[in-house]
Amino acid sequence: MIPRYTRPEMGRLWDPERRFAVWLDVELLACEAWEKLGKVPKGTAGRIGRRLAKSPPLDPARIEAIEKEVKHDVIAFLTHVAERAGSEARWLHLGMTSSDVLDTGLGVLMGEAAELMLRGVDDVLAVLKRQARRFARTPMIGRTHGI
Predict the structure, then answer these.
(1) Chain-centroid distance, C-alpha 73
(2) What's the pLDDT at 142?
(3) Is position 143 within any domain?
(4) Number of domains in the chain
């Protein structure tokens, strides 16, 4: 996004760091679902999440470097997660396609962006309401329909 045309809050939503955090949430939630079905050992998603919480944030530059080697964005992301999370990361992405992660992540980010925009609309409506009340009795010249 071009910073001068973007509100900071909106720009942060679309930063690579945020995108990868959302992808990680999608992967961990899918892993939890597999746990409930008995296909993944209980507590795996929690252990991965705790391990990642103790490590530095995911590094977009590292993911980009891996992607240059493997030529695949989600594989690069998962490889970097495995570097940080260890061997249990093998349970991530089970039964999923890249589109499952990308599309779900995009939907989450679009929802967050919509919420941000709607808050802006609410602010504008509040100002318009105040101005309409303030100037409700202001005389004005009519210019159409013979008024």
Answers:
(1) 16
(2) 73
(3) no
(4) 1
